[in-house]
Amino acid sequence: MTGYLQCGRSSGNALPQLASSREISLHFPPILPLFSLTLLVASFPANFSRPPFLLPLNLTWSDEQSAMASNGHSSPFGQATPNGNSNSSQTPRRSSRRRTNNSNSSPASSPFPLETPPSRPAGVASTPTTSRRRGTRHNPNATPSTPLSTDDAVPPYSSDRDENDNMETDGQDDTTPVFVWGTNISVQEVNGAILRFLRHFRDARSASESSEAADLMSEGKYMRVVHRIMELEGAESLDIDAHDVFEYDPDLYNKMVRYPLEVLAIFDIVLMDLVARIDPLFEKHIQTRIHNLKSSVCMRNLNPSDIEKMVSIKGMIIRCSSIIPELKEAIFRCLVCGFYSDPVLVDRGRINEPTRCLREECKAMNSMSLVHNRCRFADKQIVKLQETPDEIPEGGTPHTVSVLMHDKLVDAGKPGDRVEITGIYRAMSVRVGPSQRTVKSIFKTYIDCLHLKKTDKSRLQIDDSVNHDANNNAANHEEDDASLYHDKIEKLKELSKLPDIYDRLTRSLAPNIWELDDVKRGLLCQLFGGNALKLGSSGASLRGDINILLVGDPGTSKSQLLQYMHKLSPRGIYTSGRGSSAVGLTAYVTKDPETGETVLESGALVLSDRGVCCIDEFDKMSDNARSMLHEVMEQQTVSIAKAGIIASLNARTSVLACANPSESRYNPRLSVIDNIHLPPTLLSRFDLIYLILDKADEQTDRRLAKHIVSLFFQNPDNSVHEVLDLTTLVAYISYAKKHIHPVLSDEAAEELTRQYVQMRQRGNTPGSRKKVITATARQIESLIRLSEALARMRFSQVVEVGDVAEAFRLLEVALQQSATDHSTGTIDMDLIMTGISASERTRRENILAATRNLVMEKLVTGGPAVRALELLEELKKQSSMEVHLSDLKIALSTLTSEGLVVFHGDTIKRI
Amino acid sequence: MGGPQYDLLMNPLGAVRQTFEKAVASSQPSGLDPTALYRGKDWGIVDVLNQFLFSQGGLAQVPILDASSLKWIKPNTLVRFRGMVQDMLGNEFYIGAFKDGCTWRTNKFLDFSPFSVPPVSETTLWERRLFHCVPVPGQNSWAIESTPYPLKINISNEMTCQHGEKRRRDDDPDGISDFDCCDEGSSSSNKKQKDCGSASHHKIAEITNGSSFPTNSFSCLVKVYDMPESQFKLNEVVEFIGIYTFDPELTTSDRSDNVDDDMSMFDFMDDVATHLPPSKVPRIHCLVSQKLSTQDLISNSPACEPLPNVIRGIRDSLVSYLSCTLGNDVIAAQCLLLHLLSKLRVKSDVASVGQLSLNLTGFTQESASIFGKQLNNAIKTLLPYSHTIPLTIEYLNTAMLQPKKDNESGRLLMGALQLASGTHLTLDETVMQSGTLNSKGVENVLLLKHLMEHQIVEYDFQFYKLEMATEVQCLIISEAKSNILPADLVVPVCPSAVAPVSASEEQLHAWRWYLTTVRSLPYSTDTSICEMLQNEMVEAMRKDRSLGCSDLSRWMTMAQLMAASFGEKSFSVEHWQMVKEIERLRKERL
């Protein structure tokens, strides 16, 4: 065998003489990006469904054909026929038949080798149903009078063994190297390199195992894969990791990337031959799919020099075309005599319709018509790929590129998927119009896809639950986060290992608001959140979201804290209590009739599903909306009744509310409930309630002033040190929320129990007659959530004792501010649960007893009425404690309900 | 070759060819491949043009391409176009240079090849960038430059001359040196006029249901060569000088009658340009381009260094003009002036430094119709780009404020908030009535809110959203303080008299110059008053506990703007006191 086309990589203008004899070279046909067709599809033994662009190969062979015909020996390139000036539609077919007969031990090649006995005459292929297997027809009897079929002298069984042995040396048999036109690719060299790679490449990891395998065929990594593919029905492609190729043979890798069309065609042939040797009956064509290139290109950096190169790009599918059936082989039928033609192959995007019937007897002119259901089609799809947000420079719009998908890759990706595509970048000239032959000077570019990988798959698995029920908006945010995963993950993890990360995070939260460190820590916990639990059996779920209420004087930067939290939380909603209707995706605009102020009432809670809902002026919220919050804050759903249907929408939101005291200033003498006029039922649903009191502090004011001035004057020395910037903080939180799901360690659980019991016992201090509730079951849930959030901050999968201790501290700080009974100075949960502290209750009972005694003493049944003030005087004389008129009135109303007295206006009458 | 034998204005392609041939000839001895040499590079044509335009005063002779001049400007001539980059359509590969026989020819600055293109081996692919440009949205009539009338006459005359000349050239055996489509171009220009007319009607109808811009539908597809990736950003205003091409052959091949089965399945791969047919969207092959700032729109500005007393004089007259429009309310006028001068300088997590959105309250439906109108007119005559959005429930529920990518056509659909930087946006809330906002309305409100707070507009790319920084001053006119769109500064307007407002052209010009110049002045800081400011703030906070961070930073912004309004770069105690006084008076009104 001698190759006669030999030219090195010639620079564009030096054309090899032989090229002129073929109507090829680099041109871009309108549909089928074919190179000159010398290796033909039909020549392969089985239904060959390789996308067309890989098959053609600029190989030219000497009179090999005749040599092969005589010895029946099939080299890997046995199918390659000289194109020359010969009719390309005939020669390959002839050789195909020969090829099949050579490799298959029987003339019948059925699509189901196991079910069909090899000796059975193949009539299968002639039935129209197997239109995809046109290429396998070789029984002359089955095909109605194919003129060419007669020349097939079936040779004896081929010598598979021999081939096996000398297969590897095939390449070296040729003394004269054959080059792919216009390149320095020697076909033999590449062939050998590929074969060596497929056979001998071993994964470094599995090297030791495979060395033990004695079987020649299963030694290499890809040999094993090939075997597996052959065993499996349906598998049609061999994924080859380009990193492996590079590792094994960098030269081959480079050739592959630079001349993918040529090298991949050889790849396919080598693979096919390999398969044929293992199992001659294996009919499917296995395609090579290269992926994981060493470097991937940014979509906007694709330029003319990348054309015809193998590229790898990342992007997001934005649009898919419908599936286009592409004609691969056409069969014509004579309308006069009913003669079926041989399959006609697509040649450079065109089918040559026979002008006359090929049957000798008929020869009718223009009688051939296409038989659609006997033609072979391949699937094709065009997909638009768009740049992902992280690749777009500031002030730019995303670029898009068209990707051509074939066969199995059709519908492999859906719009919205993030994918990494390996393919060949190609350009195609644009014709001006159907009639005009002039070609515009503009080229359209597209990528012929070889391999598609969904890049966000792993991420989807992790937060599956989130993605499934989160609405569009959430998906967007999560998509945005995706970019972080690759670049910043390591940085975040490093951050999390810092010993002072907790303090650092605290400092980073609203750095311009000073003091309030414990409040910030609580807010931080809210951002990280605890784990939501779903109790499998009962279906009940425990929320993981932490709710916080800030109560305080005006002007204590509560609103700023809220604003800041709103910025940090990915799906935060900021709303004012005056305009929250809690539900609904729409909003209502109201206009105050007096002031003309317009207010937007929006349904904040549903919109902030899985986010933080910041409600400013919580105390001004309408009762109706507030009652909705009960459900939201414990069940995490919102029920909407509309058109007779009660819908329950998810509202898994953390509520951060802030309220102003009803008397504009916080009255420390009154309880929280009295101060803000919120129902205790709602209050108890807040995990943490912070009191922010304005202690006119010049120090703080000065710092604020300094900060603002520095903002304008940009004094670098004034900046806060060691603070995470906003974006990092957001990234840190979103990563932790998604990936860290801490579990209580045994010690932590023990500590939790111990401390909780201790906390409850504190109410039973000796000396106090009545039990004071210092903690309730709701608190233990809060504590678990808080400690989980604290573990999350460290990216720790385990909640440790330290976290529990800190959670207790945080809770106590909050309780001390809000649930402290001012008259005794101890924590009393009753303050929040009922609004009346235990000590207050005792006092009231004392007064009641004293009043009763007094009434019994002084008043006679049915006697004259007594004024309340007189009674008060009496009471004050008797009692050691301070008694107010209001206290007396409370006591009297109790007595009234007992039926002891009638309390009317200002007078009391005993009955 | 000597001086240019070609007419750069009428036949810029001749110059392109000539310089290319010259460059190829000069590179021949070195044995280098000329195509590789000039790939992505200029071969001298830009220099020639630059010299002609800027040294020889040719710029004034270049007609400006707009909806009206499109009718008489000849294809393949030099034009000027000012527009905003509305969409970036990516790159286009074309046969940059090819060998015709043994001479190299170029297709640069051309839509299609006038010669038959040889096989690929003798061609090289170059790339160019495509931008879809529109006239700047909200551009006020005074800021629009159009071709001066005499020039128009000139060119029309020349056109007829050219015809005679052309005939001679056609006899030339080397006739390819000019374009064969010249004839067709001019003959079809009549046809095209009609086309354009109907097209613009169609488009206007299309646009009005979305944004309320009174735009003419005119837009341009600009092809830019040899440009670094990020030279132009979205929404930048750019002046392009290049070759206007129109090829009747391309126009006739409408997509609809293109039923060639080969092509139809590749429709999907079509670049967006097919949705912008050349008959409706003219092509410009850009040779020279420059970004335009608002200052460039003020013609013959006084070149002198802004003198303090000149500035002060202009400032005083402007304040009195503004107070006139607001019914002799000086406080509101002062605030309005500061607002007009505001510009986002520094962005931090907590506060945006430099921006000052204004909410003028106290308007009833009636007074808004008087003062609102006057105010709008004033802003229109003072600022180059301005836009008014009526905040009605209906508008919010239906309008497309957000720019949105249409993945079907591959184009970015213009939302009302796709604005060039420096645009002034007036939101009229006086027309708002009670009613229900649908989800789109809620989205629109959030969008506006986001714009006001962070100067960012989110663009919808269907699968994700991109945040685009914008620079838009927002003014809200409302009955009472707007809770929907919280502004930095709320000022109740107390009009005392309705006075007819008038200003001379001269004054207007001075004010325009003043506003753009002062806005672009750099700030510097005088740290000596830091201590004083801090003390003042602490004092103020002691007096009024409700003062927060935002109030204090607003004072700083106002003081800075106040200083700028006097032409000073950094503010002094005096300016601080003025701001405090304004704040005091403003508080009294609340």
UniProtKB/TrEMBL annotation, chain A:
<keyword id="KW-0238">DNA-binding</keyword>
<comment type="subunit">
    <text>Component of the minichromosome maintenance (MCM) complex, a heterotetramer composed of MCM2, MCM3, MCM4, MCM5, MCM6 and MCM7.</text>
</comment>
<dbReference type="InterPro" id="IPR003593">
    <property type="entry name" value="AAA+_ATPase"/>
</dbReference>
<dbReference type="GO" id="GO:0005524">
    <property type="term" value="F:ATP binding"/>
</dbReference>
<dbReference type="GO" id="GO:0000347">
    <property type="term" value="C:THO complex"/>
</dbReference>
<dbReference type="Pfam" id="PF21128">
    <property type="entry name" value="WHD_MCM4"/>
</dbReference>
<dbReference type="InterPro" id="IPR018525">
    <property type="entry name" value="MCM_CS"/>
</dbReference>
<dbReference type="GO" id="GO:0006271">
    <property type="term" value="P:DNA strand elongation involved in DNA replication"/>
</dbReference>
<feature type="region of interest" description="Disordered">
    <location>
        <begin position="66"/>
        <end position="177"/>
    </location>
</feature>
<keyword id="KW-0378">Hydrolase</keyword>
<dbReference type="GO" id="GO:0017116">
    <property type="term" value="F:single-stranded DNA helicase activity"/>
</dbReference>
<dbReference type="InterPro" id="IPR027417">
    <property type="entry name" value="P-loop_NTPase"/>
</dbReference>
<comment type="function">
    <text>Acts as component of the MCM2-7 complex (MCM complex) which is the replicative helicase essential for 'once per cell cycle' DNA replication initiation and elongation in eukaryotic cells. The active ATPase sites in the MCM2-7 ring are formed through the interaction surfaces of two neighboring subunits such that a critical structure of a conserved arginine finger motif is provided in trans relative to the ATP-binding site of the Walker A box of the adjacent subunit. The six ATPase active sites, however, are likely to contribute differentially to the complex helicase activity.</text>
</comment>
<dbReference type="Pfam" id="PF14551">
    <property type="entry name" value="MCM_N"/>
</dbReference>
<keyword id="KW-0067">ATP-binding</keyword>
<comment type="function">
    <text>Probable component of the MCM2-7 complex (MCM complex) that may function as a DNA helicase and which is essential to undergo a single round of replication initiation and elongation per cell cycle in eukaryotic cells.</text>
</comment>
<dbReference type="InterPro" id="IPR001208">
    <property type="entry name" value="MCM_dom"/>
</dbReference>
<keyword id="KW-0347">Helicase</keyword>
<comment type="subunit">
    <text>Component of the MCM2-7 complex.</text>
</comment>
<keyword id="KW-0547">Nucleotide-binding</keyword>
<dbReference type="InterPro" id="IPR031327">
    <property type="entry name" value="MCM"/>
</dbReference>
<dbReference type="InterPro" id="IPR033762">
    <property type="entry name" value="MCM_OB"/>
</dbReference>
TrEMBL record, chain B:
<dbReference type="GO" id="GO:0003682">
    <property type="term" value="F:chromatin binding"/>
</dbReference>
<dbReference type="Pfam" id="PF09739">
    <property type="entry name" value="MCM_bind"/>
</dbReference>
<dbReference type="InterPro" id="IPR019140">
    <property type="entry name" value="MCM_complex-bd"/>
</dbReference>
<keyword id="KW-0539">Nucleus</keyword>
<dbReference type="GO" id="GO:0005634">
    <property type="term" value="C:nucleus"/>
</dbReference>
<protein>
    <submittedName>
        <fullName>Mini-chromosome maintenance complex-binding protein</fullName>
    </submittedName>
</protein>
<dbReference type="GO" id="GO:0006261">
    <property type="term" value="P:DNA-templated DNA replication"/>
</dbReference>
